[in-house]
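Worked Example 4.2. Consider the chain below.
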Amino acid sequence: DRRLALATDLARATAQFPDNAGTFAMLAQARLRLGEHDAAKAAAEKALALDPDLGRAALWRALAEAARLQKAGNRETEAWKAARADIIRAVAESGVPPQRCVVHCFTQGEDALADYAARGFVVSVAGLVARASPRAMPPPRALASRALPFAQLMIESDAPHPRPEIGRAHG
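Applying the procedure from the previous section yields the following structure tokens:
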């Protein structure tokens, strides 16, 4: 796997150049893409210790924590709200307009949806929102609440694993 090889190479580079914050930030991104949330957060924290103003490291740290919480099934807890606030803050500090950022495969609740929408983020949803199971997040009513303007909604077509149930429709 190319991602694993990249993470391995970056880990070697951090050992060779232990004062290079950028390398630790890249390692954080690589670990996050591998689903290694704790390792991603640790690499991002090392990058921030070396360079507290490195915005991308702050973003990778926030995303790693959010991914860890999501995997654990914790939604809308105080820890999750803090992680979301860290993501929003890191994007703001990066200078990238939120309108150019996509909250991918959104699975949070109505409060989070309203929070992202108010700041201009694009929110993408997969077929999971049309499932009848308890995992169907966000509830279709959250999207129907009009908290998210249509222009900020993106429908994912590249995620076959959370596809909707055949024959099920929401009105």
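Residues 164-171 have pLDDT under 50 and may be disordered. Residues 144 and 171 are 9 Å apart (CA to CA). Compare this with Example 4.1 before moving on.
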